[in-house]
Amino acid sequence: SSTAAGSAEAAMRWGGSAGTSHRTAGTWLMLLSHFVFTELPESWADMQEPLLEGMCFTLKYLGMTLVEKPKGEDMAAAAIRRIVATARVGARKFQKVILTVSPRGISLQDADTKEMVENISIYRISYCTTDKLQNKVFAYVAQSQESGALECHAFLSPKKKIAQAVTLTVAQAFQMALDLWEAANAGR
Questions:
Q1: C-alpha to C-alpha distance for 138 and 148, rounded to whole angstroms
Q2: What's the per-residue H, E or C state across 70-129?
Q3: Architecture of the domain whose range is 47-183
Q4: Which residue range or ranges hold the PID domain (predicted)?
Q5: CB atoms within 10 A of CB 60
Q6: For the sheet containing 150-156, what is the strand order?
Q7: Cα(142)–Cα(127) distance, rounded to whole angstroms?
């Protein structure tokens, strides 16, 4: 089985969209250099075709909290602790969502109603992790399109391996987005 060493993180320059002139290959390489893994599954590189369409995971949405930094293991761990503590206090049922990861980003769909909850561009995501202590929790940090604030969103998976798989899939989505970006800009 594959494990994420600590956390998988990506540092990105904020603003703009895919293909804008200020987004450089160096920014993408910096983003990818922050992903750290001890072991990748043998079939990881063969998953490109399904990932282009989007890899789906059924998770429970725990909640969101604002954060001050776009990346960092300690920041993410503290944010996840806040989200989990708040979730435990509330007596509400967690929203079951289908989280789809692709080179375009992450989309969230309500698992029951099939209503689209949110679409997060790959360019707005700055960090993702499987928490060390809450190892069934997957979280990502993204810049809100509306307010520009940094938000940490956390999700509960049924198993530790699923949370790790989501993290690895987001890492692969970043790599594919880089490959697509480089191919599109090769002729310039």
A1: 22
A2: CCCHHHHHHHHHHHHHHHHHCCCCCEEEEEEEECCEEEEEECCCCCEEEEEEHHHEEEEE
A3: Roll (2.30)
A4: 54-179
A5: 18
A6: 35-39, 3-9, 125-130, 137-143, 150-156, 55-67, 95-102, 105-110, 116-121
A7: 7
Could you state, in order of their start, the residue ranges of all structural domains in the chain? 47-183
User: Cα separations (Å) of 8 from 13, 38, 57, 146, 170?
Assistant: 17, 11, 18, 25, 9
CA distance 180 to 173: 10
Residue 47 CA, chain-centre distance (Å), reads 17
3-state secondary structure (DSSP) of residue 57: strand
Q: Which helix (H) or strand (E) holds 147?
A: none
How many residues are listed for the chain in this entry? 188
